[in-house]
Amino acid sequence: MGTAIRSVEAIPVSYPEPNDHSRQRSVCLVRITSEDGAVGWGECCTYFPEATRAARAVVEGMAGLVVGQDALHTRRIWEALRLHSWWYGNGQGIASLAIAGIDIALWDLKGRILGARVLDLLGGPVRDRLPAVASIHATKASIEETCEEIAGYLEGGLQGVKVGFGKKGDANLGFDHDRDVRFVKMVRETIGPRKRLMIDLGIMNFWDVPTAIRRARAFEPYDLHWLEEPLGADDPEGYRALRAATALRLAYGEKEFGFRGVERIVATGTVDVVGLDPGRIEGITGFWRAAESVAAARRQANAHNFSTAIVAAASQALSFACPAARELELQPVYGPAQKDLVDRPVWHREGWVEMPEGPGLGIEINEDLVRRARLDR
Ligand SMILES: [Mg+2]
User: What are 191-222's pLDDT values in tens digits?
Assistant: First the structure.
């Protein structure tokens, strides 16, 4: 049978990421080939080399359940992989990352076999275009220079900026109340009243509940589009208190590994914007299931699009297909994993992301670059 799966390859790669203070990032790519020779690509969004190597081992272990299956039966394979990892994953950790890479590759492959966009296989677009916003990490010591940097990113029409606090570099944001408020005030003055501004707390920040309430209230006059992970990923009681104390929209969820986790945080009533990463939350199938719960709860889903051009293409298709998604974040700094890995990287025109074109995820992979970036070369 031509649509049977012939092979599953796990390809660990490593590359510099200028959007993340030029640190060396790594992910595990997945390449799935059908008996007819059609190829689909996926990505396990692992970030760290040890996680990349672990995802590779799990993908290779799971390959036995994928090879020989019909490439069109994405849901059946997804269910089989989830069931298979009942002891070492059960909807968590490296197993979810591995399933993500396989599932994204399968959807891409299915689209190529059928000559259809993944977007159309998901039910088609629910909107014609998506607002594009920049997602950056603040790294400069000077607030003025950071404002200039942001103004530069928005020149091409991007409709807003999400700024990561508590990252590598010299920005030192998220640690001092007055400095943080001054930063938000100055960025708002720089970008004007109409652009979206989001603040995203990093794992170095460790705000407690009173700190988060005080900052959120002080940020309110500057009209944040949302405040992201002010209390990290797992603090339902803290988020309840914060939600009761501020009118700001609260965002978290990108660290969830599966739709069950998303259902749990949505049920708390404390999350307005749910971050979802298709390279982590068990692929396109997992993202879709989670985003449907988010839509049912009348909340926003937002793709955590901060990895390679493969996760970007999957995020683009999902964000056009899911009613709960309303915008798409882009990494504004040139980086090889975004711009050189594929022939048509997701980008915007005057602040709008347009629909993907072409079968599958609509991208052709630069296999030379993949070969050169291999972690195990
Ligand atoms: Mg975030």
Answer: 999 999 999 999 999 999 999 999 999 999 99
Residue 304 CA to ligand 1 center (angstroms) comes to 7
For residue 292, the one-letter residue type is: E
CA of 124 to the centre of ligand 1 (A): 27
Q: d(Cα 327, Cα 120) in Å, to the nearest integer?
A: 19
pLDDT at 23: 86
What is the CATH T-level fold of the domain 120-353, as seen in this structure? TIM Barrel (3.20.20)
Q: How far is the CA of 76 from the centre of ligand 1 (A)?
A: 31
What are the tens digits of pLDDT across the range 111-140? 999 999 999 999 999 999 999 999 999 999
CA–centroid distance, residue 213 to ligand 1 (Å): 19
How close is the Cα of 200 to the center of ligand 1, in Å?
Answer: 6
178: enclosing H helix or E strand: helix 177-191
Where residue 17 falls among pLDDT bands split at 50, 70, 90?
confident
257 Cβ neighbours under 8 A, 6+ residues apart: 91, 92, 93, 96, 97, 280, 281, 282
Q: What is the pLDDT of residues 273-319, one digit of tens each?
A: 999 999 999 999 999 999 999 999 999 999 999 999 999 999 999 99
Q: Is the separation of the CB atoms in 325 and 300 below 8 Å?
A: yes
Return the CATH fold of 5-116+365-372: Enolase-like; domain 1 (3.30.390)
C-beta separation of 353 from 316 below 8 A: yes
As annotated, the residues of the chain forming the CATH 3.20.20.120 domain(s) are 120-353
